[in-house]
Design brief:
3 helices; mainly alpha
Length: 71
């Protein structure tokens, strides 16, 4: 009965599902991108890991700059 108001609140559920979805997308890229760069571009595992880290730097930088822009 304590959680029922939250579980029936549409915006709250939307935020929860968006958080789960974005986390799933991030983890898929985290797993898939180094393997893709290794196979398609012929990079070594170390170099592929370095190049794939740029995606996450950009992802988190965009989040940080977005938060600063809202102030």
């Amino acid at each position: 009965s304590l959680l029922l108001p939250y579980l029936t609140n549409g915006p709250f559920l939307l935020i929860i599902f968006m958080s789960i979805g974005f986390t799933a997308i991030r983890e898929v890229f985290n797993f898939w991108m180094p393997a893709y760069l290794e196979k398609s571009a012929g990079l070594s595992k170390g170099v592929a890991a370095q190049f794939s880290s740029f995606f996450f730097v950009v992802w988190h930088s965009g989040y940080a700059f977005g938060r600063l822009a809202l102030r």
